[in-house]
Amino acid sequence: MDTIEQIRIIPMERRHVPHLARLEKLCFAEPWSEKALEEELDNPQAVFLAAESLHGEVLGYAGMHDILGEGYIDNIAVFPQARGSGIGSALVKALCSYGADKGLAFITLEVRPSNVPALALYQKFGFQEKGRRRNFYRRPAEDALILTKHFPGNNRPAGEERKRDG
User: 31 CB contacts (<8 Å, ≥6 apart)?
Assistant: First the structure.
């Protein structure tokens, strides 16, 4: 397996979509479809990143929406054979860097309380439990913990449009 030094985190591209749809089916009871992932390529609020090896093998991805200066993480997933090699950490770090660089007030997400590895990962990056959504998940039914990371000093005015580079 590649080490963290042998991967790159890049904006999701059309060529990643079929691999990420397959990853969604492996990881989530209610996976995003290929069409739904592809639609995010044209969404100006979407911040979707792919982790790939230096040889172009797709290893994982992270998806977030930047809405009025707030970050909402949709999914973070890593292919089973690539887990434990720092890819999840690299993806979370990239989203946090985006949040700090773009002046987001916070980034938030939902996670299953039973997903101990994910909880440890998010806590490592300063996410704190802020609430619980009862019966949020199905198959199996489970609550969701709401985890949030605030960026002190970032207070982009609500409604200010995010400027795209290029």
Answer: 21, 24, 25
Higher pLDDT, 115 or 159: 115
Sheet of 58-67: strand order equals 7-11, 46-53, 58-67, 70-78, 106-111, 142-150, 128-137
pLDDT at 165 > cutoff 60 = no
Q: What's the pTM value of the predicted model, to 2 decimals?
A: 0.88
- Cα–Cα dist 134/120, whole Å: 21
Contact 118, 111 (CB under 8 A): yes
User: 3-state DSSP helix/strand/coil percent for the chain, to nearest 5?
Assistant: 30, 35, 35
Structure tokens at 163: 């400027």
pLDDT above 80 (res 132): yes
Chain segment 29-75, per-residue pLDDT in tens: 899 999 999 999 999 999 999 999 999 999 999 999 999 999 999 99
Q: What's the CA dihedral at 117, 123, 125, 128 to 10 degrees?
A: 140
The yes/no answer on whether domain 4-150 falls in CATH 3.40.630.30 is yes
Helical spans, DSSP H, in the chain: 17-27, 34-39, 87-101, 116-124
Domain boundaries, the chain: 4-150
